[in-house]
Amino acid sequence: MNPSINRLRQRLHNSVLDGGLATELEALGADIDCDLWSARVLAESPERITKVHELYLKSGSDCIISSSYQASVEGFVAAGFSMERAHVLLADSVIIAKNVRERINPSALVAASIGPYGAYLADGSEYRGYANVSEARLREFHLDRWRILAAAKPDLMACETIPSAAEAAVLNRIAHEEETPFWLCFSCSDAQRICSGETLATAAAELANNCFLVGWGINCTSPQFVSELVRILVKLDPNIPVIVYPNSGERYEAETSSWSGTVDPIDFAERAQEWRALGAWAVGGCCRTGPQHIAALRHFSLPHPR
Question: For the domain 3-300, what is the CATH superfamily, name and number?
Answer without folding.
Answer: Homocysteine-binding-like domain (3.20.20.330)
